[in-house]
Amino acid sequence: MSALLSLHDVWVEYGDKIVLERVSLDIAARSFVSVVGPSGAGKSTFLRLILGQEAPTRGEVLLDGKPLRRECDADRGVVFQRYSVFPHLTALQNVMFGRECEQAPVTGRLFGSRRRAAIAEAEAMLEAVGLEHSRHVYPAQMSGGMQQRLAIAQALIKHPRILLLDEPFGALDPGIRLDMHALVTRLWRERGLTIVMVTHDIREAFKLSTRVLAFDKRRHDPHAPHRFGSTATYDVPLDRKADDAAGTVADQPGPAIAPATALSLSNEEAE
Ligand SMILES: Nc1ncnc2c1ncn2[C@@H]1O[C@H](COP(=O)(O)OP(=O)(O)OP(=O)(O)O)[C@@H](O)[C@H]1O
Description:
alpha/beta; Rossmann fold; 2 domains; disordered C terminus; ATP hydrolysis activity; ABC_SmlMolc_Importer
């Protein structure tokens, strides 16, 4: 399968601090990749590279074999742990916002038939995430789970091929997380999305994904911690398939390699 996204020997440095080093990997279309690793391992930086918010200091990031555009276009949608939605807009207005900015970049408003089409599309998107009865509700009146559903609808209204999720369920209660797992799995399958998700929850990563990447440092300099960056120390393909009809999001047993072991092994390997 050809790669949708390719990173070739990517490094990210801030001054003399190396955050990522030698990251080389391909991400196939319609895969669901989870990124795990200790705090500060560069997981969000990796996501920002794919989003185009961050340029590699060295190396290249390719989308469909071509250098990634710096600005985030309709190819990529993103949902963060919090603050993805606009507090002063209702659910419907939040979802329509993307359409209005795209189609009326100067005024930010649509009129007539284009407005009616945008409303219909936004309502369908709200229904897809289970918020059809909350279209006139403001984010402050919603639970955390509802706000994340709204953020997902907002990200998907532009029909991105790639959905980037940065700790999207981190602030949610366990029961709500399970609902969100089912929602994201359904949207991933139905819409043929490619998902890259950063999570601290290793079980969530192994449950939802087709592939788990563990980022960590292979080399440590105790006298200069910033001297070496993280890379994908473990790259674990899983059996889960987007078109696997039987593949529900039921809890699965833990990974074959305990993640803590995997991460510590990676350091030993490097020595
Ligand atoms: N603009 C920046 N300038 C300097 N250092 C930065 C910048 N952005 C990120 N960093 C550093 O890069 C490192 C990786 O940050 P990043 O947020 O990608 O890690 P992370 O793995 O997502 O962490 P966490 O799990 O805690 O969210 C951190 O040490 C952070 O301080």
